[in-house]
Amino acid sequence: MRTTGNARTAVRNLGILAHVDAGKTTLTERFLFLTGAIHKRGEVHDGTTVTDFDPQERDRGITISAAAVSCDWAGHRLNLIDTPGHVDFSDEVERALRVLDGAVAVFDGVAGVEPQSESVWRQADRHGVPRIAFVNKLDRAGADLDTAVHSLRTRLGTVPLPVQLPIGSEAAFTGVVDLVRMRAYAWPDGADTCTEGPVPEELRDEAARRRRRLTETVAELHAAALEEYCELGTLTEPTLAAALRDLTLSGEAVVVLCGSAYRNRGIEPLLDAVVAYLPAPTDLPPVRGDRPADPEAPFTALAFKVSATPTGRLTYLRVYAGTIRKGDTVLDTTARRSERIARILRVQADRTTEADRAVAGDIVAVVGPKAARAGATLCAPDAPMLLEPPVSADPVVSVAVEARRGLDTERLAAALARLAEEDPSLVVRTDPESGQTVLSGLGELHLEVAVEKLRRAQGLEVTVGRPRVAYRETVVRGVTGLAYRHVKQDGGAGQFAHVVIDLAPLEGADREEAPGAPDFVFRSTVTGGRVPQEFVRAVEAGCRDALAEGPLGGHPVTGVRVTLTDGATHVKDSSELAFRAAGRFALREALRTSELALLEPVAEVTVTVPDSAVGSVLGDLSARRGRVTDSTTRGGTAVLTATVPLAELFGYASRLRGRTQGRGTFTTRPSGYAPAG
């Protein structure tokens, strides 16, 4: 299966995606070891892996920040990003997916598709990233490839195409049969590399049956394969491999492989599959119109990560087009300023090596840009372009942070600004009522990690308040025909704007009409030119201003529809400024006269506990205002799924450990907002 490519096609930019503890970091470590990028295998439990280099990652045994590494396989350069699996760091996954061409989605052979597996899969769907699947941990008790494949089909709604048959099961899992080539690969105990041979006699019938099922499914989905299948009654190896690649690139199906990363089994075939099925930069359409992945095209790159290191500020770039060299001046079109590239670095987690240039398809770090943020577009000064940045999730949890010593107040402010620069999902603001500095993020663990960075990296002693959630306000019953006249005369040109608006809660039809902005819909039914179009846009902008603070408690307002039904202008005194003010004040008055409700963030919680502890855990969830939506049992273990207000989950980890003698685990993922109880 191993192939080589020319310089422009022999690159694969891929991410490793999965639920926490599915084995992403271990798999990345095995990739690096087998390709010769490292000479000693590290282990997550020992804190010796290459990509989990941050002290907190090693202490906690989880990936916190996306780490970039590179290796070579079969004449191809593989640029890998090991992404976090914990829901609190999903924004890191979002930024990584924005610049990746493909991904390996890792699934636990026992659990199959888990909650965060589904979340990162949906993120990849939104970005159109082709994927192959790797069912890991087949050496564990209870692991089963067919069950895992079934969960891919039912929970992810995809068409899984298993191209391997395991040899042995659980502790006796020793290898795989490649159904494309009909060859067997085995890994003797203690061996770092595999041995290749014919399919074992006892598995030949089963392998033939599975290959027949694979070819039938592929023929149903691929026109060229169907033509050959109708002619020959089967598919040749080249046709099958080509069809699998086409289906992967189009997203119509997902190739599924299996193995055990910890036991070093199944890694070489997975590397071959990465090269064979995932796209090269040249396989994808130009990033924008005339910017193909060509070193001769105008330089275009997206900054997806910013990191402060002891040696300086690193800006991680995905180069989409053109070439960049040391000493070049580039344009940051987001900040509208020029930046000089002092150094170009190839990144291997926390280690770097110098490079003279980077070309289309490369992922590198650069030193020099002082203002570029994650999401910034860097391009040739004579060919400006603005790329769509990654979208950061809105924070849902906040804590007040202050320095214990007054002398450290300025240092704390600078350190918080640096944290927010490195992680755009962290937001720092000053509470207007208390004057406290408030740090907001995506979860309790997210904020714990951020505060610990302040203590470890900056040497700051800080006091942290109790976490608070981000509430929202929404309209239950609105108003119609609310008229507002904005008149201001203080010498010179005055201001005049008259608007009439209706305010109502959003309905399903509104969300279908504006899927990109489901929290606020603005319409105008004004006829006869009574309000010119430019003033209509100003009214909408004013309404958006008013949504920042609701009348119940100053929380943002969401889920509303505003309709501008009438208005009037003045021949001299009407302006966009006047109509923006009118829109803002009109909506504020409409909100005050409407019936509102307070919303709180809720999370879907999946709790895995021994059968003996189910009653106690259910009682605790009920006390936390949780609503159980699903319950299953397997092998003496119960899996409970519940929707719980986020505010009630603070400290839940320690409570669950206490109720289950340390045997219970849980995961969460945001599931929107619900009326506060």
Automatic annotation (TrEMBL):
Q: What residues bind GTP, as annotated?
A: 18-25, 82-86, 136-139
Q: Which UniProt keywords apply?
A: Cytoplasm, Elongation factor, GTP-binding, Nucleotide-binding, Protein biosynthesis
Q: Look up the record and give one Gene Ontology term from the biological process aspect.
A: ribosome disassembly
- Localisation per UniProt entry: Cytoplasm
Does the keyword field hold Zinc?
no
Family statement drawn from the similarity comment of this UniProt entry: Belongs to the TRAFAC class translation factor GTPase superfamily. Classic translation factor GTPase family. EF-G/EF-2 subfamily.
Name it. Elongation factor G
